[in-house]
Amino acid sequence: MPVRSRLALLATAALCLGATKDASAPGAYCPLPKAGEVPSCLAGAQETYQGFFLGLEAGNLDEAEAARIEQDLKGARPEKRFEALSSLSYGYFRLAGNVAGSERPNPALISRLERWNQLLGEAYAESEADPSYRAAVREAAVDLRRNVPALGLRCADEQGRTTRCESTEAVIRAMDARRQETGLRGALSRLIQAVFPGDEQP
Fold first, then answer.
1. I want to staple 55 with a disulfide (CB 3.0 to 4.6 A). Which of 62, 145, 169, 180 is the partner?
2. Is residue 41 within 8 Å of residue 86, measured between CB atoms?
3. Between the CA of residue 159 and those of 103, 163, 179, what are the distances in Å?
4. Helices 50-58, 81-100: inter-axial angle, 10-degree rounding
């Protein structure tokens, strides 16, 4: 078979594989649902973190289950990271709705959302070796920014000063800065290797 035909066949196969992968598959982020819906792609996460989801429905978050999700998000059980990410994002979405709909928001809920912002930022920063998970973490942060009402959470501005953010915009800003820094570092490394091909970079 000619090389051009083989390349075309491989490209077609890659497109087909990409089309069949969905959010319900392992290793994928489950996007936030429309109002009043629970996405079917959360089924596995609901089974893994049953107490967490039951607590969300009852309006009484299970602290032990929330802690388990936070630990898994940070890699305590690598095979559960995507489920933990999807669960935390959904929990953030639900708790944010409670905060936004309350005349006197619960300070503990606001603190938890701020903590989850920090965890999302840390998960992104620590996942450079796993591009698929890193991309999923950013997707979750963008999904939350798009779907969560304005909350007035404490966050850091571009100069590192404490200010107020609606939801995850400061997290996304930090992610973009880190991505730009990583891209620049990679470009400099390639330039050095091109100029000094015999040198190994750390």
1. 62
2. yes
3. 32, 10, 18
4. 10
Average pLDDT in the chain: 81
Q: How far apart are CA 88 and CA 95, in angstroms?
A: 10
- How far apart CA 183 and CA 188 sit, in angstroms, is 9
Residue type, 18: G
pLDDT digits (tens, 9 = 90+) for 117-176: 999 999 999 999 999 999 999 999 999 999 998 888 998 877 788 888 889 999 999 999
Distance between start and end Cα atoms, the chain: 42
| Alpha-carbon span 15 to 34, nearest angstrom | 28
pTM: 0.77
141, 118 Cβ separation under 8 angstroms: no
